Amino acid sequence: MKAYVMNEKRELVVAKRPEPAEKKDNIIVKICAASICGTDMRTFLKGNQKIDPPRIMGHEFAGKILYVGEKLKKYGFEKGDRVTIAPAIGCGECYYCKNGHSNMCDSLETIGFQYDGVFASLVEIPAKAVRNGNLIHLPDEISYDDATLIEPAACAYNGQIYLNIHEGDTVVIYGSGMIGCIHAELALSKGAAQVFVVEPVEKRGKIALEKVPGVQWINPFTQNTVEVVREKTGGRGADVVIVATSVPSVHTEAQIIAAKRGRISLFGGLPVDGKGYLDSNAIHYKELQIFGAHATTAAYMKVIMDMMLQHKLDAKKYIEKTVTLDNVEEGFVSIRDENTMKVVIHP
Ligand SMILES: [Zn+2]
Ligand SMILES: [Zn+2]
Q1: Which domain holds residue 170?
Q2: Which of 159, 217, 322, 345 has the fewest CB atoms found within 10 Å of its own CB?
């Protein structure tokens, strides 16, 4: 089958790969839609040492089950079922897995990293993913295309769990890509009074205004973010700051614009050494609360699916381009050069 692969030389190429074999303890799914994630984009631009090549790329997808191995029949999946997956698979045994935080598993393995990914026509779902509840039935009301956004949205949801956003809060989000916009939507749905996105790329800022009614845009090239936030909050600062970009200096600025007792999510990891951006005394005297966020769980994906079913979250509006495996690179290039929000692949 055709696939988008990281080869032994760690180059990304469209190549032929063997179809997954039917085994007693696997499930094989036909990919109906996959999407390019920020993580895939970073791999495209800078490589990724966490991937063991040769490896099929990609982890966001939805599809239809073609085969269920005998040993997995008891888990309620059948040929023809529509499914998606929480791609970060825990061991099911460690402290974190047993306490509902499989994304923090000590031996986390991820589709597209330690297992072959979904930029292909078929994917093998490992037994562990089925046993641990990572494979999820997809309701008929959610299209395959829309379903590819469940996982990234659920990552945003995981990040916001700690932030306790409530009515009247002022929320500032750095970065207005799709993830930034979803953060804004989730914050508004919790009753935030003001939601700002800080975005230097004009096209993205304007798109955020269009996609997320109620959001306000700060352009840090033409405005002073610290001053704007102070002015809009009576000098107090933001109750919640979400850093959904990987610009290191923003980690420091987040502590400056946060109000006393403010909650900060360092949602985007840094491509450089992460040391040296936090101000211990600011955290101490302002009683700041700073949280990390990494991946998501099947349980949070179900929360997002419910929001989609109740029309509280519309994924479709973020899909701006569709490609096939043959022109998958065009998808990456359009994200890089044209700030395309979400690219869906139809293998
Ligand atoms: Zn993703
Ligand atoms: Zn575990």
Answers
A1: 163-292
A2: 322
